[in-house]
Automatic annotation (TrEMBL):
One GO BP: protoporphyrinogen IX biosynthetic process
Pfam families assigned to the protein according to its UniProt record, in alphabetical order: HEM4
InterPro entries: 4pyrrol_syn_uPrphyn_synt_sf, 4pyrrol_synth_uPrphyn_synth, UROS/Hem4
Pathway: Porphyrin-containing compound metabolism; protoporphyrin-IX biosynthesis; coproporphyrinogen-III from 5-aminolevulinate: step 3/4
Role noted for this protein: Catalyzes cyclization of the linear tetrapyrrole, hydroxymethylbilane, to the macrocyclic uroporphyrinogen III.
Keyword terms: Lyase, Porphyrin biosynthesis
Catalytic reaction equation(s): hydroxymethylbilane = uroporphyrinogen III + H2O
Organism: Thioploca ingrica
An annotated Gene Ontology molecular function: uroporphyrinogen-III synthase activity
Annotated PANTHER family: UROPORPHYRINOGEN-III SYNTHASE, CHLOROPLASTIC (PTHR38042:SF1)
Tetrapyrrole biosynthesis uroporphyrinogen III synthase domain sequence ranges: 22-241
Name of the featured protein: Uroporphyrinogen-III synthase
CDD domains: HemD (cd06578)
């Protein structure tokens, strides 16, 4: 029994500018990606916190980027206002974020799989004996988990957030949804928006779901998903595809 996605239509809910690599990986396995972005990334209107950070960058010991979006919404402004001090340590939450920083010419420390806040907190560079008394800024989207900052503060660091983008719900497309065999979701917001956008369409809750984290799986169950839910072993496109293959094997006997 071969493991592949041949003949399966897979709904991709990621923001459109972040979905291409995942779609390519799915196509390489014979699947057909159907793009339905449920999140749109928008710059925040108030950039005062980011501009203030530019003026105090020399006082910081470390900056942390939560996502590739945080990099892309921060650096065009940050690097026109100042130069990163050589002593400033840069941390990326996830492989894609580290790669985006590399494209900007910035080397960053990156946690191991599964590429989430818990993995970052396990890094040697972020232990209490290292960061106590250090000043840290975390660049992220509006809202989100507080675990990273809360834990770093408990370890003795001074931590501030700078929100550089917000997530909005796109309008529902005019085209009709065809048969969908599996759905991929990479955030709680993305799942909630999907359910809002396709409210009243029962198939959404009855289609096998592949998600990026256990937190999304818990939310999916709470919000009435009745189909099997598969959690990626690591928070990456490759992790999602591995779970899609597992789901295809279990549900469709691929």
């Amino acid at each position: 029994m071969s493991s592949n996605l041949v003949g399966l239509k897979i709904l991709i809910t990621r923001p459109i500018h972040q979905s291409e690599h995942l779609c390519q990986l799915i196509e390489a396995q014979g699947g057909q990606p159907i793009r339905l972005p449920t999140i749109e990334i928008v710059e925040v209107a108030d950039k005062s916190a980011l501009l203030a950070c530019c003026h105090h960058l020399n006082e910081l010991d470390m900056i942390i980027f939560i996502s590739a979006n945080a990099v892309e919404k921060t650096l065009p402004i940050l690097l026109t206002q100042c130069t990163l001090p050589p002593s400033l340590q840069v941390i990326a939450v996830g492989k894609a974020t580290a790669e985006t920083l590399k494209n900007w010419g910035i080397a960053a420390g990156c946690a191991a799989a599964p590429f989430n806040s818990e993995a970052v907190l396990a890094m040697p560079a972020l232990q209490a004996e290292v960061i106590a008394g250090k000043k840290i800024v975390i660049f992220r989207g509006e809202g989100g988990r507080e675990l990273l900052a809360d834990t770093l503060r408990q370890r003795g660091a001074s931590v501030d957030y700078v929100s550089v983008y917000s997530r909005t719900q796109p309008s529902v497309p005019a085209w009709a949804i065809q048969r969908i065999d599996m759905i991929t979701v990479t955030s709680r917001d993305g799942l909630q928006n999907l359910l809002n956008m396709l409210e009243g369409q029962a198939w959404v809750r009855q289609t096998p779901l592949v998600v990026m984290s256990q937190r999304i799986s818990i939310a999916a169950q709470k919000w009435g998903i009745q189909a099997p839910i598969f959690v990626a072993a690591q928070a990456s496109d490759e992790g999602l595809v591995a779970s899609l293959l597992q789901a295809a094997q279990q549900v469709y006997k691929k």
